[in-house]
């Protein structure tokens, strides 16, 4: 880059600052400072003399902190600078991503530290939590969805008027997709796209069957990189299966109807697999008496792989599958039971058995009065599994237990989610959620 070494002078709220064009270029093209450069990253000359001074009517203390961040990459916030004010100023200058990157390091499950806990307003009815792409999250409480930005400040809640929320998905930092139950006699339910900041409904997604728009219950959600939305759907007649919509236009693109003797419309979990261009669909105990896991290929409109515990010899309930996640690099699906036993199903064998890797003998103890079913997540090559009031982290080719995340307040973990370099865990008893972050490396 042809970056000049010119000295640049700013008058910010009456205080004079001097820096170089090279330092300002670290802010990036889309920042406030990027507008000061031409296409070749040479400083624009707004005045004929070289002693030009840019006046900015903003807070000088915050400017000093942000300028040091551009110089060194480190974030130091003096005690006289409120964090909220600094974040507001960082938003103005287009440096909020720089602040976030400096405030906590790249995500690593083995180095996570509890950053903050947030208590909800309606104890005991939290059902789902989803991490946003920018470090925020949203939490479902019955028919309400509470949205929090990356500073964990709550936005106006989204109220679905007594329709129970089944799942939430972040389309991007500005929009969330919500699936909800149909209310008999009301003709509502289904899916809606909402503005995450205002809570306003932007679009409602329809299911069309026999050229007629049908009311339906939408369940589990998933997204693909080519802007498709997938949702499990249950209608009143034959609309049981997986619907597909265009994320940009909102139009229904396809519908995969469930075959007799199988279960798709009641799915607990959907997961898009980029490598195979297939959708994992898992319907699990206790929603159904049996567990059904399948891979759907929408290009060929067929089920290319399936597994079920129908007919399997279950001597004890602990072998019931409570959650499942595909691990494409390992050609397997990982499952978990209520005692945190991990199991693996070979994707190369259709209908194969579960190879259980039991650790329950090490973890067993008295279960809570109201235990929550375990959940699984896979992130950056690390496997996470919730169990009672803790989350276990597994690493390596043999998925060895390497660390646990635990806190004593809030009861069992009913759901957790990873995104925006944070892990969020939702507790059941006190309706409190935790934000876990990887600390930034120490300044040497």
Automatic annotation (TrEMBL):
Signal peptide: none annotated. Pathway: Protein modification; protein ubiquitination. It comes from the Eukaryota. SMART domains: BTB (SM00225). InterPro entries: Beta_prop_At2g24240 (IPR057441), BTB/POZ_dom (IPR000210), SKP1/BTB/POZ_sf (IPR011333), T1-type_BTB (IPR003131), WD40/YVTN_repeat-like_dom_sf (IPR015943), WD40_repeat_dom_sf (IPR036322). Residues 6-79 form the BTB domain. PANTHER family: OSJNBA0029H02.24 PROTEIN (PTHR14499:SF116), POTASSIUM CHANNEL TETRAMERIZATION DOMAIN-CONTAINING (PTHR14499). This is BTB domain-containing protein. It comes from Hibiscus sabdariffa. The lineage of its organism: Eukaryota, Viridiplantae, Streptophyta, Embryophyta, Tracheophyta.
């Amino acid at each position: 880059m042809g970056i000049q070494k010119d000295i640049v002078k700013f008058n910010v709220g009456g205080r004079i600052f001097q820096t170089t064009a090279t330092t300002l270029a670290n802010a990036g093209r889309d920042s406030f400072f990027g507008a000061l450069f031409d296409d070749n990253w040479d400083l624009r000359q707004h005045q004929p003399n070289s002693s030009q001074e840019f006046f900015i009517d903003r807070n000088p203390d915050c400017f000093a902190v942000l300028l040091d961040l551009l110089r060194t990459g480190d974030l130091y916030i003096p005690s006289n600078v409120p964090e909220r004010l600094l974040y507001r100023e960082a938003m103005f200058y287009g440096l909020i991503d720089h602040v976030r990157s400096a405030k906590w390091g790249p995500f690593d499950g083995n180095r996570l530290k509890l950053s903050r806990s947030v208590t909800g307003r309606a104890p005991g009815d939290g059902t789902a939590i989803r991490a946003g792409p920018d470090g925020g999250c949203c939490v479902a409480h019955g028919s309400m969805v509470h949205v929090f930005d990356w500073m964990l400040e709550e936005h106006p809640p989204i109220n679905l008027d007594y329709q129970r929320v089944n799942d939430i998905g972040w389309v991007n930092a500005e929009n969330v997709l919500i699936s909800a139950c149909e209310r008999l006699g009301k003709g509502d339910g289904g899916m809606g796209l909402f503005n995450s900041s205002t809570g306003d409904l932007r679009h409602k997604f329809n299911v069309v069957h026999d050229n007629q728009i049908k009311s339906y219950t939408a369940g589990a959600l998933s997204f693909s990189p080519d802007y498709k939305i997938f949702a499990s759907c249950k209608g009143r007649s034959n609309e049981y299966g997986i619907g597909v919509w265009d994320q940009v236009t909102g139009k229904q693109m396809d519908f995969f109807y469930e075959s007799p003797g199988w279960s798709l419309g009641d799915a607990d979990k959907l997961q898009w697999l980029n490598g195979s261009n297939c959708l994992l669909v898992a319907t699990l105990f206790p929603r159904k008496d049996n567990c059904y896991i399948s891979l759907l290929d929408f290009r060929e409109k067929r089920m290319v792989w399936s597994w079920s515990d129908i007919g399997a010899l279950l001597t004890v309930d602990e072998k019931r599958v409570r959650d499942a996640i595909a691990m494409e690099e390992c050609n397997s699906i990982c499952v978990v039971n209520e005692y945190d036993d991990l199991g693996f199903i070979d994707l190369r064998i259709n209908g194969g058995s579960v190879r259980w890797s039991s650790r329950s003998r090490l973890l067993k103890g008295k279960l809570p009065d109201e235990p929550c079913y375990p959940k699984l997540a896979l992130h950056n090559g690390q496997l996470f599994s919730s169990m009672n009031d803790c989350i276990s982290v597994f690493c390596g080719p043999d998925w060895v237990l390497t660390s646990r995340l635990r806190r004593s307040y809030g009861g069992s973990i009913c759901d957790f989610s990873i995104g925006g370099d944070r892990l969020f865990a939702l507790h059941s008893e006190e309706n409190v959620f935790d934000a876990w972050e990887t600390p930034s490396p120490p300044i040497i």
